[in-house]
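Batch 3, record 17
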Amino acid sequence: MARFLLSRLGLTILMLAGLVLITFVISNVAPADPAALAAGPDATRDMVETVRKEYGLDRPLPEQFVRYVGGLLAGNFGRSVATGHMVAEDLARFFPATFELVSVSMTLAILLGVPLGMLAAVRRNHWLDHATRVIAVSGVALPAFWFGLLLQLLFAVQLGLVPTSGRLEVGTPPPPVLTNMYLVDALVAGQLDTFWDAFGHAVLPAIVLAFPCLASIIRVNRAEMIEVLGSDYVLAARAHGVARARVVGVLALRNAMLPTVALIGLRYGWMLGGTVLVETVFDWPGIGLYAVSSAIAADFKPIMGVTLLVGLNFMFANLLVDLAYAGLDPRLRTAP
Amino acid sequence: MSLLEVVDYSLAFDGFEGTHQVLDAIDLAVDVGETVGLVGETGCGKSVLAKSLLKLNDIPPARILSGSIRFDGRDLLALDETALRAIRGGGIAMIFQDPMTFLNPVFSIGDQMAEVIRARDRADNRKRGARDVRAAAAALLAAVRLPDAAALLDRYPHELSGGMRQRVLIAMALAGHARLLVADEPTTALDVTIQSQVLALLADLVAAQGLTLLLISHDLGVIGALCRRIVVMYAGTIVEDAPAAQLFDRPLHPYTQGLLAAVPDIGRPERRLAGIPGSIPNLLAPPAGCRFHPRCPLAIERCRRERPALRRIAAGQRVACHLAEPV
Ligand SMILES: Nc1ncnc2c1ncn2[C@@H]1O[C@H](COP(=O)(O)OP(=O)(O)OP(=O)(O)O)[C@@H](O)[C@H]1O
Ligand SMILES: [Mg+2]
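Prediction for the assembled complex:
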C-alpha cells in the first residue's frame, strides 16, 4: 500500500512538471505581447520596454522559465500584468469560492445520484426508472446558462425562496478569513446566520453545476448495478437467504460503486475547470470568471496559475480515486 | 412423506423473440435421505429447475405456467420473500457450478461467510456477536477440510484456488443446517483430481449429516459416484427416473440409451462412441408430442402427436415414452 501511494505520488509530481512546462510554452508562443498590454494602448515604445524589463520579460525564455519555476516552488505565481496583483493572492481569494461551490455540487450529485441510480436499477422499467431517466437525459441536454437563468427566475425572482446571485447578502460581512470558503469559515467562527446566508446563495448555482454530474452518476450507477444484480455472487447470496435490501444496499453496492467512484473523480476535475458559465449567471466570484477575464486581457501569469491549480486538484482527485479503488477492491491491493 | 415434491411444474421465460418453454410438467419427488442425480444435456433446464426450488428465477422474465413445489409439506410458491428467506439456506441449500463467479470478488471470505451466517441467525431469530460469528465461520471452513481456516477468513476470493473456493461455497451452504442440499454441477469447473476430492467431501458430508442430496450434472460418472437414484432430463422434461444401478443396467428411454452409449468406457476403447444424432430443440417452439421425437430412432406417428406421460414401468422406474413396455 505504501509503495502504491509513493509511486502514485511520484507520477503526480511528474505530471505536474509536465503541466508547468506546457503552460509556460503555450503562453509564450501566443502572439500577444504582455508588456505592450500592460503598458496600455497609449504607451510609447520606451514605456513598453520599461514594463518589459520590470516584469523580466526581456530575459531569454529558459531563464524566464527557471525563474518562474523557482517562484512556483516558493509559492509565487508571479504578478498579473493587467492588475499588478500577485497571482497567488488572487488565487487564494477566488479559488476557495469555486472549490466551495464545486464541493457542494459534488456532494449533492453523489448523495442524490447513487441512491437514484440504485433505485432505478432495482425498479427497472418501473415509473421510478423512467423518472430518473428524464433527469439523466436532461442533465446532459440542458445548457447550464439557460437552466441557471430558469432556476433564478423561478426560485429567486418569482418565489423568492433563495437569493438570485452573489455569495452573501449585501449587508452581511464575510466571516473571519480562514479558508475563504464562507461555509467553512462561518461554521468555524460559529456564525450560523452567516452560514445559512452563504448556503442559500450556494444552492442554485450548486444545483445547476451538479445537474450534468448527477445525470452521469445516475446513468453509470444504474447500469453497473443492473449488471452486478445479475451476477452469480448476488444469486448465491440470495440463495443463502441474505435479505434483498442487504444484497442490494451492501453487497452489490460495493461492486457497483467502482466505476462510479472513477466517474466522480473525473467529474470533479472537470467541474473545477468548467464553472465559468455558472459563475457568470450567478455572479459568483470564482476562479472561472477570473480565468476568463485574464484570458481576455491576455494576462498569462493568472492563466498559468489557474491552469496549474486546477491541474493540481485534478491530479489530487485522481489520487484519491485510486486510493478509494484500492480500498473498495482488494484485487488492486496486491497488484504491483 | 416426501421432503421435496414438484408436481406438474412448468415454467417459461418471456423474451423479445417469444416465450421459451424451459420446464414442461416436471414431476419429481425426493424422500428424506435420498441421493438423487439430475442429468441432461446443456440447456435442458437443470439449473432453472434447481433455482425454481428456491424461487430464484426472477419473475419476469420467468413465468410459472402450472404446478406446485412443496418442501417439507409447505407450498413454496405461496411463500413471500420473508418466509422464503427461512427456506433459502435453512431448508434447502445450494452449491453452484463456478466457484470463480459465485463468490463476491470485493469481500473477504470471512465477510461473506459472516453475511450468510447472520442471514441464518436472522431467520432463526438469533443474535450473535462478531466474535462468535467469526468462530462459526472458521468452524464451517474446517468442516469442509480447509486447512488454517482462521487465516483463510481474511483472504479474498482471488487469492484462493478453484478447489478452495468451491469448498468455501460448500461451507456457506452448510451454514444453515439445511436438510436438502442442491448441488448444481459443483465440480464441472474444477480439474479432475480436485473434482474427485470435492466429490468425496460431498459424499462424506451427506453421509455424516444425513443430508438429502440433489446433484445436478451432465456427467453420468459424477452422478453415478454419489447418487442412488438418477433422473434424466431432456429439453425441459423428465424422460426417465430410476435407481442408478437399474438405469445403467436397463435404460428404458431411447434418450437415456443414447446418453449411456455416449459415455466413453476406459475399459473398452475399441467401442465406437454412439452420440445422439440431431441437436437439442429450440425451446421457443419445442416439438409437439414427445420433445425427443425428432431425434428418436424409434419414433412412431403417436410420438409426434401425443406427449408421453411419465409412467411407472417397473419397480422404482418411471419412463416418459409411448414405446416402453412394463417389465
Ligand atoms: N433468465 C433467463 N431468461 C431467458 N432464458 C433463460 C434464462 N435462464 C435460462 N434460460 C434458458 O433456459 C434454458 C435452460 O437453461 P439452464 O441454465 O437450466 O440449462 P442447464 O441444463 O443448467 O444447462 P448447463 O448444463 O449448461 O448448465 C436455456 O435454454 C436457457 O437459454
Ligand atoms: Mg446449469
